[in-house]
Amino acid sequence: MGGKDAFHGLKEGTDVVAHYTEKGTEKTAVEVDKVGKDGIKSVDGAVTHIDRAGKTMAVKTADGTEHTFKLSGHAADDAGKDIAKGTEKTAHVTVYYTEEAGKKTAHFFEKI
Fold first, then answer.
1. CB 16 within 8 A of CB 33
2. Comparing C-alpha atoms, which of 60, 56, 46 is closest to residue 88?
3. For residues 112 and 46, is the Cβ–Cβ distance under 8 A?
4. For the chain, where are the alpha helices, taking DSSP H only?
5. Whole-number Cα distances in Å, 98 to 25, 86, 93
6. Which of 19, 29, 36, 57 has the fewest Cβ atoms within 10 angstroms?
7. For residue range 60-69, what is the model confidence (pLDDT) as tens digits?
8. Which CATH number fits domain 41-111: 3.30.420.40, 1.10.10.10, 1.10.285.10, 2.40.50.140?
9. 3-state secondary structure of 89
10. Nearest alpha carbon to residue 94 among 33, 32, 69, 9
């Protein structure tokens, strides 16, 4: 994200999630996501499909609902590292996403 627009629309006290890199003791934010009413949402479920080339991921929740997400750059990188090929259908994750015009974009996820 970086640059002058890195904090666009944010004000002091806004809840955020910061993606950062670490070199020695120095941490550098590379993406900042707003959390809250119009910010990041989350859903827990089992990964049913990952299309690394198409940068999509499908997750089935406990009630049987399947959600399909477009993966942001960071989420696509994480999918490559955190979920090994062959284990996609056994991985249980929390997906943190935004939704615009009915389309869900996963910004990051964590195994649960």
1. yes
2. 46
3. no
4. 73-82
5. 31, 27, 16
6. 36
7. 999 999 999 9
8. 2.40.50.140
9. helix
10. 69
The first and second tokens of residue 55, run together, are 């940068």
Q: Is 36 exposed, middle or buried (0-12, 13-18, 19+ CB in 10 A)?
A: exposed
Q: Residue 65: how many CA atoms within 13 Å on its side-chain side?
A: 5
* Structure-model confidence comparison of residues 10 and 84, the more confident one: 10
Of residues 106, 98, 12, the one with CA closest to residue 57 = 106
What is this structure's pTM?
Answer: 0.67
Residue 56 tokens read as: 């999509």
Tokens of 108: 């990051």
Q: Which residues of 18-31 are buried (b: 16+ CB within 10 A; e: fewer)?
A: ebeeeeeeeeeeeb
Ordered by start, the domain boundaries in the chain are: 1-35, 41-111
* Type of residue numbered 7: F
